[in-house]
Every structure is written in C-alpha cells, then in structure tokens.
C-alpha cells in the first residue's frame, strides 16, 4: 500500500473565514482601479466554493468561453469523436480477478454513471462475455435524486461478499459509505453507514471496522484528513466507536489498512506525518500500537512468504547491521521474527535499480512476488520467489512498451497485465505467474490512424547539464520548418512517472489533424527513481521548470515547431507547471491549457487538501520557503503590462482536492490587467473535472478546439 494512493482517497480542508460584506467592498474597490498595476491580490470571495458572487463570476467566464469555442465547427467534430471513443462498447472491460470471478465497472452512453458487474474467468476470456450486473449507479442515482459517482468498494477479507461502497456526490473526493452485500446485490439493512467525509477504513472482521473519518470535535488534520482511528462494531452508532489510534492535527492524516500474514490478518495504521514521511504501526488485539522501526520515507508493499517487502526512498543501514541499502532499493525481512521479538533481524536485498531504472509497482500473488520496473521509461515485469534468498525471471512480454499490472491478489497466481504505447492500442494479457503462461485475451480496436506515425525519444540538456528525456510523436515525413502545431505535456511532481500511453482522443483530435505531441519526462516525476523526484523538492523546484523549458527550446531548435505553433498542457501539479511556464517564459508558447491547477502558492496550504503538499512544495509559513514560493507563484508573478499567450483554465466547482479558487484568482487578475484568457469551470466533476464520460468528451473537445485555434494554420 503506497501513501500516495492512500492520500488521494480523501482531502478537504477548512477555509479561512471571510466576511462577505468586507470582500464585496474590496471587490468594488478593485474594479474601480482595474487597469492599474496597484492590484496585487484577488479577492477572497473567490475562495467561497459555491458563493453567489464567485459563481456569478464563473458563470460569466464560462459563457464567454463556451460561446467562443462551441461555435467553432471543430468543437462538434472533436466532441463527437471523443464521445465515440469514450462510449465505445468494444473497449477493454478492465477487471479485478478475485475468488474465481472478474469484477468490472463499466460506463458507456447507456450507463452514464456506470454499473458494477461480474463474470467468470472463463467467460471473461471470451470476445463478448456475459456479465451479471451487481450495482447500477444510474438506477441508484435516479431513485435517490443524486448525481452519484462510484468510487469503489472495500470488502472484508474473511467474507468477500460484505463490502463498503463509496459514493461521491458529483465526483468529490469526499464519499458516503454504505455496507453492501455482493451475494444479494443489496445494501445491508441497518448495516454499517458512514456519512459524507474523506473517510478511510479497513475491515477487522465481518462485524468490525477500523475507521478514520470526520468525527467532529476538530478531528481532521490541517490537510482535511482524519487523524483519529476508531473501532466501530456492528450495531454501534458513530459516537460509540472506540479510539484505537490518534495522530496529530499537524499530520497529513492517519489511515487504517490490513496486511495478510500466514493465516492471520494484521491490522495496521499508517501515520502520514508529511506527504513523504510516514510511521507504520501494528495494532495488536491486546496492548498498545507497536511502531515498525523502518525509515519514515519507506513504503510497505505487503508480506510475501513471511517476508515484509519494503521499498526505500533513502539510504538505510538497519539497526544492528553493517549492511547499507541504497535509496530506490526493494528489501525484505522476516515479519514473524519482528512480531515475536520487536526486532527486524537480517534484511535482504530484493532488487537494486541502476541510475536509469526505478520500481514502478510491486504485486503479491499466491506464490510469487511480481515487480514492475521502469527502465529508461520502458516497462519490464519480473517474477520473484523466495526460498531463503531471492531468485527472479523476466516475463516474456512485448519490449519497448508501457506495462501495468491491472489485477493481482494473494489468493491466486493469475494476474492481468496491460500493455500499450503511443501508437499501439492497449492489449490485455492473462498471465499465470506460477508457470509463466501468457495469453493475450483482449485488445482495443484502433481509435485513430497510426499507420504513418513515428515515435522518437530525445534528450534535452537542462540548465545544470542534466539530460532530460522526452518523446515526440508525429506523422512521418513532417517538414522541419518550425510550422508544425505541437502540444507539449508534462507533470513534474510527486514521483509520478509520465509514460507512453495510447490515447484515442489525443490520436483522433490532435495527431490525425497533423499535430505533434511531446511528452516530457522532467524531474519531480519518478522516471529515474527517488533522486529524480527529490531533485526538485521545495526550494529546489526551479530545476523542474528549467527542464520543461529545456525540452521546449530543444524541439524549437530542431525546428519541429516554433513558439507560434507550440502549446503546453498540464493538470493539478502540472497546472502549477503551466502557470509557471506562462509567467516565466511566455515567449515560448502560443497556447497554455491549465487544468485543475495550483496557482496561488502563498495560500495553497490553507485551501482544501493543500496543507498535505507542504512536503512537496514547501511551506509559506517558513520565511525561506515562502520567499522561494513567492518567486514562482504564478498568481503573484503576472506582469500587468506583459505580453502573454492565450491561456485556458479548466477546473471544477466540485474539486475538493485542488481548490477552484486557484484558477478563479488567476483569471480574475488577468481580467483586471486586460490579458487574454479562456475559462471553463464544470459544476461537477471532482479533481478530474469530469464526473462522467459525456463531460470528459466535452472538456477535451473544448481543449482541442482552443489548441487548434491558437496553433494550427
């Protein structure tokens, strides 16, 4: 279980109090001086998520942009193409295999909100499986008059039919959780129920849960996550639950989970002190929580054949040992020895990546440990076994592609592996890791014409000499005269790797239209392991921006494109990247698509989940870090008289992770200065800015229409 995955389950922080009368007066004053350089701050009423004044402003911006973009004939073309792709009935129904059944959540034009369904493994291998519907979210939404978005299930280890279903109102991270019986396909009468919150839970047994939620009484961290874990018995009300673990209000959050060890379940909690520093505790049936003596930057991947599997993000010499393990390594130690003696004992090396490789996933099956490696931004999958020491073999899967283990569990040796690249559509393999039997069982039909497309990998030199890899996808034989419309994409944060992937919408609405696509593997990501990410943390973050600029300058120098025809896109942390590209190097781009962005870096830690990211960006409350954040904060670095490319802000009112006020404030200031921008805030959608497939098609059509208007002849 990785902290990043835990943390993204929930996030909502308390906003600063704001007097509406005072902010209205402030806004009126600012309007009177709208074209002067004295305006340095956007009004705080824009932070009122559903405030009347804020939504009135948003409605006006939305209308102006929608009128402009939807009237372009290309919009309807792009939207219809996107709808055909997202609603296709021949896409791969990705499933989770467990207890001899494959479970799939499916959406199409007839199931807008989606259905949870199941089939047998033998049936799943067929071209047209027969599915049994378990839960219809469209029908549930209609019956209850809600816009429910399905956010998954958490099922009991000893009774897989008992599950807690997570339902989000409009796509928010906050969810309502209800107990549901998979066998009867009904919600359990008087079963467990948890009201809307950023809840995390783990089953102790079929009649008991460990729950972290909003208990009231100031029980959420500054980041908006729970820090009090309670045990809730069947039949108890929430106020009867008993506290089993407490963290601190200054933590990111505390989250319960479980590890399977031999024939027992170990109930655990992870206390996330910062986004990258965590403490792991075992909760014995009797006695106090016991902390594992492991580095607070490491991640527990599970238990395999009695060995606790641990991935390292820093160098580590275990207590009592003279053996040093390097950052990025995967190691193991005997869990039973620790449970009995509270001592780790001998630690063994499972895998040590070189400087151009990193762990990209660890899965545990009934008899094997499966490791997905990213080696120079290409995936390879290895199967490991343990018999006193570690041995491994590489799975014979296609080379030079992106691969992910889409399903694996410790009750079976059957896993599903998805393989793709920029121009080859997804193929799903069924793999029996016990005998390395590999069968391709499903493939997506081509969504665009890729017959004349070529993919090349280059390396740009950043300001400090580091070689930054990037991919370029384009039609064969393009003229290198700087006239090719080009879209550059990157993320650059949170150790998230950007890998080649097959996108039908990108292919149909950009590559087929003659566009060039560039994927930049800049620092801050995880492409080359922990050091690649840590190079850009906090006050070192300028190297991430320099990397992005270096890639742009490199493709311009190669005459693939020119600033007049170059656009850039990114979302969330990538939205911050877009804001910085807009303010630091406006001369490089003619279009910027800024999706669900962070832009106010002096107040980000006070907005929704912002406090949880201080480990990544630094704290505005620390003078040295604040000084740096002020230098890069897009909102605070707009030149009133500057010349800027057109920028398109895309966000969502229901995004309770990155506050829509970031985009609102930036748009407000650009409006005051008379700078050109487009704006679309979806009322639903959560952090993806789209609550269903229809909204996804609309949003992407708007983005590609904007890019076409700005970059194409």
Automatic annotation (TrEMBL):
* PROSITE patterns hit by this protein: PROKAR_LIPOPROTEIN
Q: SUPFAM superfamilies attached here?
A: alpha/beta-Hydrolases, Peptidase/esterase 'gauge' domain
Please list the residue ranges annotated as the Peptidase S9A N-terminal domain. Answer: 44-441
What biological processes does GO assign it? proteolysis
Q: Does the keyword Protease apply?
A: yes
Q: Name one GO molecular function term.
A: serine-type endopeptidase activity
Any single GO CC term annotated in Swiss-Prot or TrEMBL for this entry = cytosol
Keyword annotations of the record: Hydrolase, Protease, Serine protease, Signal
The signal sequence is 1-20
> Where would I find the Peptidase S9 prolyl oligopeptidase catalytic domain in this sequence?
510-711
Q: Please identify the protein, giving its name as recorded.
A: Prolyl oligopeptidase
**Source organism (scientific name):** Arsukibacterium tuosuense
């Amino acid at each position: 279980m990785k902290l990043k995955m835990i943390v993204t389950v929930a996030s909502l922080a308390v906003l600063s109090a704001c007097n509406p009368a005072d902010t209205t007066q402030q806004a009126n004053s600012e309007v009177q001086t709208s074209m002067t350089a004295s305006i340095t701050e956007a009004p705080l009423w824009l932070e009122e998520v559903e405030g009347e004044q804020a939504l009135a402003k948003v409605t006006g911006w939305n209308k102006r942009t929608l009128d402009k973009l939807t009237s372009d004939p290309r919009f309807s073309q792009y939207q219809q193409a996107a709808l055909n792709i997202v609603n296709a009935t021949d896409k791969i129904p990705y499933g989770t295999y467990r207890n001899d059944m494959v479970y799939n959540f499916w959406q199409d034009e007839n199931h807008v909100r989606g259905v949870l369904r199941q089939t047998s493994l033998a049936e799943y291998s067929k071209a047209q499986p027969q599915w049994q519907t378990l839960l219809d979210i469209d029908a549930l939404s209609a019956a209850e008059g809600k816009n429910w978005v399905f956010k998954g299930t958490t099922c009991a280890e000893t009774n897989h039919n008992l599950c807690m279903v997570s339902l989000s109102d409009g796509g928010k991270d906050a969810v309502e959780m209800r107990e549901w019986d998979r066998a009867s396909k009904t919600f359990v009468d008087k079963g467990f129920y948890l009201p809307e919150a950023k809840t995390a839970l783990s089953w102790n047994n079929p009649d008991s849960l460990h729950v972290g939620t909003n208990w009231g009484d100031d029980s959420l961290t500054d980041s908006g996550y729970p820090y009090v874990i309670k045990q809730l018995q069947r039949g108890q009300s929430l106020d009867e639950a008993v506290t089993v673990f407490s963290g601190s209000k200054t933590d990111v959050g505390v989250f319960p989970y479980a590890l399977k060890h031999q024939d027992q379940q170990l109930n655990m909690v992870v206390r996330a002190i910062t986004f990258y520093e965590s403490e792991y505790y075992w909760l014995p049936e009797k006695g106090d929580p016991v902390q594992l003596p492991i580095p607070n930057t490491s991640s527990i991947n599970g238990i395999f054949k009695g060995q606790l599997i641990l991935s390292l993000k820093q160098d580590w010499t275990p207590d009592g040992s003279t053996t040093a393990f390097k950052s990025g390594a995967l190691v193991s130690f005997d869990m039973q020895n620790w449970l009995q003696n509270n001592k780790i004992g001998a630690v063994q090396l499972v895998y040590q990546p070189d400087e151009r490789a990193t762990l990209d996933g660890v899965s545990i099956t009934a008899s094997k440990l499966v490791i997905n490696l990213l080696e120079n931004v290409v995936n390879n999958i290895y199967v490991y076994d343990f018999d006193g020491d570690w041995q491994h073999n590489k799975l014979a899967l296609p080379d030079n592609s992106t691969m992910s283990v889409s399903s694996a569990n410790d009750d079976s040796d059957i896993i599903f592996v998805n393989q793709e690249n920029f121009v080859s559509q997804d193929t799903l393999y069924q793999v029996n890791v016990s005998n390395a039997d590999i069968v391709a069982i499903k493939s997506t039909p081509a969504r665009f014409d890729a017959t004349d497309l070529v993919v090349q990998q280059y390396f740009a030199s950043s300001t400090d000499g580091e070689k930054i890899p990037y991919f370029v996808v384009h039609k064969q034989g393009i003229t290198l005269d700087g006239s090719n419309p080009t879209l550059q994409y990157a993320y650059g944060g949170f150790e998230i790797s950007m890998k080649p992937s097959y996108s039908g919408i990108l292919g149909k609405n950009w590559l087929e239209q003659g566009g060039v696509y560039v994927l930049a593997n800049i620092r801050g990501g995880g492409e080359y392991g922990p050091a690649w990410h840590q190079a850009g943390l906090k006050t070192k973050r300028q190297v991430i921006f320099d990397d992005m600029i270096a890639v742009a300058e490199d493709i311009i120098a190669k005459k693939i494109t020119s600033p007049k025809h170059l656009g850039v896109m990114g979302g969330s942390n990538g939205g911050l990247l877009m804001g910085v590209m807009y303010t630091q190097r406006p001369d490089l781009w003619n279009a910027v698509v800024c999706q669900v962005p962070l832009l106010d870096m002096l107040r980000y830690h006070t907005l929704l989940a912002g406090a949880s990211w201080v480990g990544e960006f630094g704290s505005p409350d620390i003078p040295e870090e604040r000084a740096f954040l002020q230098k890069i904060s897009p909102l605070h670095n707009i030149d009133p008289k500057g010349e800027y490319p057109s920028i398109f802000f895309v966000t969502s009112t229901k995004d309770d992770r990155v506050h829509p006020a970031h985009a609102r404030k930036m748009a407000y200031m650009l409006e005051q200065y008379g700078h050109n921008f487009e704006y679309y805030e979806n009322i639903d959608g959560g952090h993806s800015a789209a609550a269903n497939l229809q909204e996804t098609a609309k949003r992407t059509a708007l983005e590609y229409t904007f890019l076409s208007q700005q970059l194409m002849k």
